[in-house]
Write a structure and sequence with these properties.
Layout lengths: L3 E2 L14 E2 L9 E10 L3 H4 L4 E2 L6 E7 L4 E8 L5 E6 L4 E7 L6 E3 L2 E7 L2 E3 L12 E6 L2 E5 L3 E10 L3 E7 L3 E2 L2 E4 L5 E2 L7 E5 L5 E9 L2 E3 L4 E6 L4 E6 L4 E3 L4 E3 L3 E2 L2 E2 L4 E10 L4 E9 L4 E8 H7 L3 H5 L15 E2 L2 E6 L6 E9 L5 E11 L4 E2 L4 E10 L2 E9 L6 E7 H8 L3 H6 L15 E6 L6 E11 L7 E13 L9 H4 L3 E7 L6 E11 L3 E5 L9 E5 L5 E4 L1 E8 L5 E10 L4 E2 L4 E7 L5 E5 L8 E11 L5 E12 L3 E4 L30 E2 L3
Parallel strand pairs: 3-13, 11-19, 14-25, 14-26, 27-34, 35-41, 39-55
Antiparallel strand pairs: 1-4, 2-3, 3-7, 5-6, 5-8, 6-7, 8-12, 9-10, 10-17, 12-13, 14-20, 15-19, 15-22, 16-18, 21-24, 22-23, 28-29, 29-32, 30-31, 30-33, 33-34, 36-37, 37-39, 38-40, 40-41, 42-43, 42-54, 43-44, 44-45, 45-46, 46-50, 47-48, 48-49, 48-52, 50-51, 51-54, 52-53
Length: 692
């Protein structure tokens, strides 16, 4: 019965015929040809109109014939007239019963069919109907073989069958469903694996496929499995039944249609960050799941474990791990979330599988597999660290570290004694960095690519200075995220001598400073005195002011630097108002330099009495007027400003050492009526790190 025609609720009965001896052909010696017609009994009530059966030429049945004493089984085949014919041994001309499809393993006795054989494999050819595997038991009377359905049938419909699928397999959980069965036999428990499954091969064709699996009546346990395989017997799809299935005699049990696996590219997996827990003293790795809809579960494994245990996503999805195992708990996951694990191996390759489940953990068929690599720490050779025993911060020398990193780098820093580093972290930079990335830990994130960070104090011992990449997490909560890049500097701090160097001492004394860029030369006489050796000076005489002390800085390269300064002194204006004296600068375009902007810079050759005035990089102007300036509020509450003497400085100014004592002649000052607009305060990074 390779062709099935659907005609509602009725069955098509085949034309009746009589059994006769064929006299037109000559069978082999000792055999005679016999012919009969066959029909399928009325089963429309039991089969609910699922299918109507009809014979086709080539259908074969096993027929039991006797000579009155014993019997033999002969195969009869339907010809083009749909009449079954077969050659039987001479004398064995009494037909008793038959079984479809033909199978030498069927058994008979004088009463008819004794057992029907259910094979472990059915082979469907191109054009065969899947219902042709349903067995029939026939009895012979009055020249007609009448067949009935003595067993139950499960009907499976699978959508989206892959084009390379070539076989379907049904496996029970604890029941035998192939082998020999008496007509009234029911399902039995068994421990024989070979009798717990049935395979149906079929021609390759993508789309929807229907499969019929016959078996005795009874209750199938939950966790029966349907599977699809390719030509190489590699599994393509599998689904586990979560409930028991009732198999009823003479009834086709329709199983709900099943969707094969569908890869959902929208489900994404991303390794986001690691975090150190101070309470658990552990590092946790966080993996983000996004783009999910509905309920799902996840599985994480190393790529090597995944490959060796499953081989492919099909191998994983068909393993006993899922579905219906509630592997991750009793509640399916939902929504886009971060999931944490104990620290994953740095540099290790991992596989994350996200698969859809319903609230009972039944597999929905949707999945996605993402491979990712866990970052490992990398010591950057393009991050440069230099220790500076003496760094001038507004006239005071501090030990400092100079950091140079690529543009756009976000990083944090740490300084600790080498003894502490070895004792507490075993000399492992990564182990120390973990202690700095607890989400609740407050660390400074820097972006300056070229910066000096100075220390308030250091002991004279060995140190380790660490710079590590870190940024704020994109996720809510402001967690710190490592970039896994770092650089490390080991250095020994020895306090420098405070004896003045020759380069520092060369600036001490009196100097005439002459500016020739204007219409008339302008000359000041400066007195430069030591303030902090090798760091700063006290300068008087700017714009002929001897009583107001200006701070001069001694730079590492030997230059003299004067910055804009506040609160130099307090004085009284001619109107009797108290004002604070500041040293500011005004560029030719009118922009004012306040705060700590560079105003004047000069270089000196210690062997030459003259020094050269330079244009500070922060002003980049042909000339700057520098002035003593102050603010005050009058009796009416009006804010006013006052400017005392001012001078002009450009890169044409000269400084000449006064070898002999000169006479200072300070001029008076004048109160200015014009408004004075202050420029923006500069932003200066002055961070002190603890010297542990």
């Amino acid at each position: 019965m390779r062709k099935i025609s659907v005609i509602g609720a009725s069955l098509l009965l085949l034309a009746l015929g009589s059994c006769s001896r064929e006299k037109d052909t000559n069978p082999a010696d000792g055999f005679v040809k016999m012919r009969f017609t066959a029909v399928v009994g009325d089963t429309r009530t039991a089969y609910e109109g699922d299918k109507t059966a009809s014979w086709v030429a080539g259908d074969a049945i096993s027929v039991y014939v006797t000579n009155g004493t014993d019997g033999q089984v002969v195969t009869f085949t339907a010809d083009e007239s749909l009449t079954f014919e077969g050659n039987v041994p001479a004398g064995y001309t009494t037909i008793v019963a038959g079984a479809y499809p033909a199978d030498a393993a069927h058994t008979f006795d004088a009463n008819g069919v004794k057992t029907i054989h259910f094979p472990a494999t059915y082979n469907l050819e191109e054009g065969d109907d899947p219902a042709s595997v349903i067995p029939l038991a026939g009895t012979f009377a009055d020249g007609v073989m009448t067949f009935t359905h003595p067993f139950g049938v499960l009907k499976f419909t699978i959508n989206n069958v892959p084009a390379n699928a070539t076989s379907f397999k049904f496996t029970t959980f604890g029941h035998r469903i192939n082998g020999n069965y008496a007509l009234d036999e029911e399902l039995e428990d068994t421990v024989v694996d070979s009798e717990k499954s049935v395979r149906i091969t079929f021609p390759e064709a993508a789309g929807t496929h229907t499969f019929y699996v016959p078996m005795p009546a009874g209750e199938l346990y939950a966790e029966s499995v349907i599977s699809l395989y390719d030509f190489d017997n590699e599994i393509l799809f599998q689904k586990v039944a979560s409930k028991e299935i009732t198999v009823t005699k003479n009834v086709i049990k329709r199983i709900a249609a099943v969707e094969t696996w569908k890869k959902n590219e929208a489900w994404q997996v991303k390794y986001v960050y690691d975090s150190y827990s101070t309470s658990a003293e552990k590092v946790y790795s966080y993996v983000n799941i996004s783009g999910t809809t509905g309920l799902y579960d996840i599985s994480l494994s190393t790529k090597s474990y995944f490959d060796s245990h499953y081989g492919s996503i099909e191998g994983f999805l068909t393993s006993s791990y899922i579905p219906n195992r509630q592997a991750s708990g009793t509640t399916p996951k939902s929504g886009d979330k971060n999931y944490y694990y104990n620290r994953l191996t740095p540099g290790g390759e991992y596989v994350m599988v996200v698969y859809g489940v319903d609230e009972d953990y039944n597999f929905t068929g949707e999945y996605n597999l993402v491979e990712f690599e866990v970052p490992e720490f990398t010591q950057r050779d393009d991050w440069h660290l230099t220790f500076r025993p003496s760094y001038n911060v507004n006239g005071t020398l501090y030990p400092a570290v100079h950091i140079q990193v690529p543009e756009g780098t976000s990083y944090s820093t740490a300084n600790l004694k080498k003894e502490t580093f070895l004792n507490n972290y075993g000399g492992d930079v990564a182990a120390y960095i973990w202690t700095r990335v607890n989400p609740s830990t407050s660390v400074t994130i820097r972006t300056s690519k070229d910066i000096n960070l100075y220390f308030s104090s250091l002991d004279e011992t060995d140190y380790v200075y660490i710079v590590y990449g870190i940024r704020e997490a994109e996720q809510t909560g402001g967690n710190r995220i490592l970039t896994y890049d770092y650089a490390v500097l080991e250095y020994t701090y020895v306090k420098p001598s405070d004896e003045p160097t020759a380069a520092y001492s060369a600036w001490l004394g009196k100097w005439t400073v002459t500016e020739t860029s204007g219409d008339e030369p302008f000359t000041d006489t400066w007195t430069i005195s030591a303030k902090n050796n090798n760091a700063s000076y006290t300068i008087t005489g700017l714009v002929k002011r001897n009583s107001w002390e200006v701070l001069g800085l001694f730079e590492e390269d030997g230059t003299l630097l004067i910055k804009a300064q506040k609160n130099i002194a307090t004085t009284t204006t001619s109107s009797g108002y108290e004002a604070t004296v500041n040293l500011y600068g005004k560029r030719a375009d009118g922009k004012t330099y306040t705060g700590t902007y560079d105003l004047m810079r000069a270089t000196l050759d210690a062997s030459n009495p003259d020094a050269a005035m330079l244009t500070p990089p922060s002003t980049s102007s042909l000339y700057v007027s520098y002035l003593f300036y102050g603010n005050y509020t009058d009796d009416e509450g009006t804010a006013r400003s006052v400017t005392w003497s001012k001078g002009t400085r450009s890169n044409s100014a000269t400084m000449t050492r006064v070898v002999e004592e000169g006479v200072m002649a300070p001029d008076g000052w004048d109160e200015a009526a014009e408004d004075f607009t202050m420029g923006p305060e500069p932003v200066v990074v002055v961070d002190a790190l603890p010297g542990e």
